[in-house]
Amino acid sequence: VPLFGRRSRVFCRYRGYVLPSDIVNTVVNDIPWFEVRPDDTWVVSFPKAGTTWLQEIVYLICNDFDYEKAQATTIEDRFPFLEFPYPGVKVVAQSPPPRFIKTHLPFSLLPKQLDEKKPKVIYIARNPKDTAVSLQAFTKMINYVTFLGNMEDFAQLFVEGTVFYGPWEKHVKEAWDRRDEENILFVTYEDLHKDFRGTVQDIARFLEKSMSESQLRALEVHCSFSLMQSNDSVNYSWQQGVLFGEGQFMRKGKVGDWKNHLSSEMSDKFDAMVTSLEPSGLHFVDS
Ligand code: A3P
Fold first, then answer.
1. Which of 12, 155, 204, 218 has the fewest C-beta atoms lying within 10 Å of its C-beta?
2. Per the confidence metrics, is the pTM higher than 0.95?
């Protein structure tokens, strides 16, 4: 029984990763030669790891907490998605510095100049069970992928490494292995949940930006789940009826929601995947 509908985007494997075919063309032909600037700021993640949350934090820290400026433009325009057809890699390349760039590509598929120009790069990871649940909900919501299976079917594809941008553990491990490089910071969704203030202070230090106590307090309120959910510059409401059908991009924003969706057998399969990463020192909290 096919799990993806006929009108779904086609996926293919490129250098060990599963990518939508239109993105593969960009990844092969444009991304390797993309000109990186040392004053760029990059947010890199596996999809549904809390990318948008981190983007908003980074953008505000780097733009003097100018909430009006952030509000005036969608996150998609002020912090574009490198390999996505909109606005397109050529537009991103030509945008004036300082540039803010989001990508879901793993390190091994990023531009060759990244290692030479050494812009600041923050990678965010999320425990795979919540990532899979969030990605399945997202897959149901987006118009260009028709997933016909249920949550358990999707979770099985996730652990097999065949959902887009997978295998998840390969993606995360590549970033984890580079966490000590001076221009790279590795954070987790669970860190932001548990200790928003401490994690944001680490991020600001890494970005070489100072932040007062009142600025931190205001950012914490601004980036709370309920305010981000109703914030039309970050909640992707502009894509409703365009790229998205039914459903909310800012869905639940919780750690441990997987318990409402995954069987204990499936949870064991995810645990085995996480355990395989533990010798590297990488651990995940999932409740
Ligand atoms: P859920 O689907 O579990 O709710 P990404 O931006 O990488 O696509 O990640 C989206 C996930 O991050 C969604 O998870 C979304 O709700 C969650 N998220 C976004 N903003 C958040 C916030 N301020 N607090 C907590 N979770 C947030």
1. 12
2. yes
